[in-house]
Amino acid sequence: xxVSFEPSNEKERVRQGLLKVGTKRSTGEIQVETPGCxxxxxxxxxxxxxxxxxxxxxxxxxxISLSHMFDDMPPPSINFEPGLHKYxxxxxxxxxxxxxxxxxxxxxxxxxxxxYISVNTYGGIRKVTPQDFIKTIxxxxxxxxxxxxxxxxxxxxxxxxxxxxxxxxxxxxxxIIAEKKENISLFGxxxxxxHERERQRCAEELVKRDMDGYVLDARGLNVEEExxxxxxxxxxxxxxxxxxxxxxxxxSAPDGVLRGISLGIDLFDSxxxxxxxxxxxxxxxxxxxxxxxxxxQLVYDLWxxxxxxxxxxxxxGCQCFACQNHTRSYTHHLLNTHEMLGPVLLMVHNFHHxxxxxxxxxxxxRDDSFEQKRADFLHKYYNK
Length: 384
Ligand SMILES: [Zn+2]
Description:
The chain is an alpha/beta fold. Helix content is 36%, strand content 19%. It is built from twelve helices and 15 strands. The protein has an eight-stranded parallel β-sheet. Zinc ion binds at residues 314-315, 318, 320, 322-323, 349, 352.
C-alpha cells in the first residue's frame, strides 16, 4: 500500500489536491479529493446510517477511532485474520485509524504515563501501551494509521510537560515505525501544546522520520486569542513538506474548516455534522451562494414546535433523499416520538450538505474565489 498526495492548486497556504492510496484489495486504488473529510464512525459504522445508505454518499474515506474498539482489551476483532476492512465490509474505503474520538463524546483523559496513554472508552478508561497499539494496527491493517501520541489535555501544560509530551511521542513513534507492518502508512502527530520551541522540535523530528502524512490537533490548544492560536499552529505546519497530506482535528465546524484550509489542512474529521444530527438540527448554510434560504442561520432546529405544520424540506433545493422525500413536519414528529428514522433523515441530509460544502470549497480554490467566498461566509454566519 502506498499513499501519494498531489497538491495541484496552491496559493499562499490554501491547497486543493488528490490523495491516492494504492491497495492490494480487489477495489484497487482509492482516491479522496482534498480539501475533504473523513466520515465519522463509531466502531466502524456511520451512526444512524446502514452501510448501503452510507455508500450513497460521495465519500470513500472513513475514520475509525481505537477508543471505540478498546472497551474490550484486546478487542476480539484483532483475531480476524483478513483485517478490519474485511471485518467491517469496508474494502472500498480508505481506512484511517487513530486512537482518539474526534467528537467530544469521549473526552481525553489527563492520565498518560511514561509507557502508556489513558484512553476513554464506552466501557471506562483503558491504559494503552505502544505495544498494544502496534499489535492492534498490525492486525487491523488500515491504509493509514495516526501514530499513538502523548497529547496533553491539561488546560495550561508547563514547558516541562510539553517537552515530555514531545519526547514520549517521538519515542513511541520510533517503536511503532520499527514494528508496524510495511503496508500501513503512518502519519505523525504534531504535539507541543502552546510552547513554540516544542512544537517546532516535534515537527522537525517528524519530518526527519519521513512520515507519510501529518496530524494537527487544535483541540488541546488552550489559547484564547485566535491569532495566537493560528501562529502556534503555523509553527507546526511551516516545517512540513508540501507533498504530504495533513489531517486536522478540532476544525470540523464550518468556520473551523475554512480556517483549517487557510492554514494548509487537507483532510478534516466530520464530528460536526454528526453532533448537529444529535441535536436534532439540519445544516442550512450556503457557501459561495448569494442566496440565503435560511436567514443567515447555520442550522435549522427540527425540535421547534413551529415545524408541526411545515410541509417544506429541511433546506429548499437540497437534492438529498431526506429533503426530496420528507417534510420538516414529519421529522419533527419522528423526533418527538423518538423514532429511529428522525436522526436517520437528519444524518442523510447533514452529511450530504457537509460533503457539498467541501465540493464548493474545492471549486472555489480552483477558480480562485476561495478568499472572497470565505470572507462573505464568515461575515454572513459569524458576523466577522
Ligand atoms: Zn437535504
